[in-house]
Write a structure and sequence with these properties.
By secondary structure, the protein is an all-beta fold. 0% of the residues lie in helices and 48% in strands. The protein has strands at 4-7, 10-13, 18-24, 33-39, 46-51, 57-59, 67-72, 77-82, 91-98, 113-114, 118-123. Strands 2, 4, 5, 6, 9, 10 and 11 form a seven-stranded mixed β-sheet that branches. Strands 1-3-8-7 form a four-stranded antiparallel β-sheet, with no helix packed on it.
Length: 124
């Protein structure tokens, strides 16, 4: 599996913005399905944003209009731009990858490659 390394987490005020990065190391053949998940203490890890091999995207309803997932092919980096952050967005954020084109189900078990996570804290 291709190693993934998240960065960009931190503490921000509600209403602020933050951009997370996920460096993708290893083979450049086929980026597969790239995604961002998050997990708050005591809660399940949930899919937040998904980038299909086609370039199409999918977002959880809770972040639609506020978060944007993108990929820089040259830098081999996945991004999650988070705007208008809310306290409920606070969580450990993970990037994930599934090789191929079968990106669903958009669940933890369907994504075999993970980063170690980057913490996002939102204060008021």
């Amino acid at each position: 599996q291709v190693p993934l390394v998240e960065s960009g987490g931190g503490s921000v005020q509600a209403g602020g913005s933050l951009r997370l990065s996920c460096a993708i190391f290893g083979s450049t053949v086929g980026r597969g399905c790239l995604a961002w998940f998050r997990q708050a203490p005591g809660k399940e890890r949930e899919g937040v944003a998904l980038l299909y091999p086609s370039g199409d995207t999918r977002y959880d309803d809770s972040v639609k209009g506020r978060f944007t997932i993108s990929h820089d092919n040259a830098k081999r980096t996945l991004y999650l731009q988070m705007n208008s952050l809310k306290r409920e967005d606070a969580a450990m954020y993970y990037c994930a990858r599934r090789l191929g084109v079968d990106c669903h189900p958009f669940t933890r078990t369907n994504y075999p490659t993970w980063g170690q996570g980057t913490q996002v804290t939102v204060s008021s």
